[in-house]
Amino acid sequence: MENINAKYVSQKISKTRWRLVSHSSLQQPDIFATGSWDNEVNKISFWSIGNHGSSDMDDGFEGDPQLLCEYKHDGDVLDLQFLDQDRIVTTSSTGAVTIFRLHQNSQTISVAQRWPRAHGYPCENAPCTGVVCSSPEIVTVGEDGKIIIFRADQEGVNRVIENADSSTIHAVTYLRTTEILTVNSIGQLKLWDFRQQSNTPSQILSLSGDRVPLHCVDRHPNQQHIVATGGQDGMLCVWDVRQGSTPFSLMEAHSSEMWEVHFHPTNPDHLFTCSEDGSLLHWETSTHSDMPSFLQGGRNNSMKSRSAMAPAGGNQSLINAWLSGDSSKGRLETTHMLPSQTLSVNSLDVLGQCLVCGTDGEAIFVNRQVPV
Q1: Rounded to whole angstroms, how far apart are CA atoms 139 and 113?
Q2: What residues contact residue 361 under an 8 Å CB cut-off, 6+ apart?
Q3: Phi and psi of 328, rounded to 5°?
Q4: What is the pLDDT of residue 25?
Q5: In this structure, is the dihedral angle defined by the CA atoms of residues 241, 247, 248 and 251, taken in order, positive or negative?
Q6: pTM of this prediction?
Q7: How far is CA 211 from the centre of its chain?
Q8: Own/partner pairs for 366-369, CB < 8 Å, 24+ apart?
Q9: How many CB atoms lie within 10 A of CB 191?
């Protein structure tokens, strides 16, 4: 825990995201954004973990994150995504979608674009629960069951799938350039192909048995058919969207709701989850063979594997570590990343060796030396 800096910020943090670094550079991220919720005045804030002119130290940066600037946000910040280096998209409990621009030289924020009632019912607003961006495209989902596609360079709405879901959509991510994944409050994972004009999903996968609400979703950065979700029961589910309609494997991860799951963007043998139970877990597939496997070891021996079979005609050696179920081939290790916590860890983000998370304990934690 010695690599962690805690910064107390006097507001409950709902979302944290690193600013993107260019693919060509090997530098670590130095700026992140946070959004707050359940405060009298909610804010979007930008923070720096740069060394602020101090001499370069061998062990990287020292000290707390420094506040660069902040801006009042109408409603709770329910999701945050960077559109590019200078712009970030927020979604609100009021149903609004806003693009903010960071002016780094003057350390100020301005509103670049706003859709005030993007999500809603005929007579009232509906919270906009999630957003994913691939500039200039922005995709949002909401409690109203809608999927809305915007373009950052256009004022109007590009496309609306009105009745995408009869229940609340909790999160969204890209599967491929023209396909997205959504998760909902009745345990379903849906694939949508925007090349189709149809307003129905191209595929529906679901948890069997109890329809436990799913809160978060992420896809493997290199093997897009592999998807991880987390939900109300704290279980980590790994799915193969090419086959089957239920999760490939289920792992007991947290004792209450899992709020976010993220594969490491460049080293996807590492995955991170955070929860209402106050914990943030680092999952690592440690492999000892050509064909790694995804299997619990040590104290976390509660994995249930649906199948370890290769897809028909598939190359056995290419089966991903997160899907395989042969315990002799490897194991999964989990590490607690935070000191003992009692209040919810609502959000996390990881980029390079840097991890940031935000809590209901009004704290931001930054770790600059994540072992990935």
Answers
A1: 15
A2: 341, 342, 343
A3: -75, -15
A4: 63
A5: positive
A6: 0.88
A7: 21
A8: 366/4, 366/5, 366/7, 366/32, 366/49, 366/65, 367/3, 367/4, 367/5, 367/337, 368/3, 368/5, 368/28, 368/49, 368/60, 368/61, 369/3, 369/59, 369/60
A9: 17
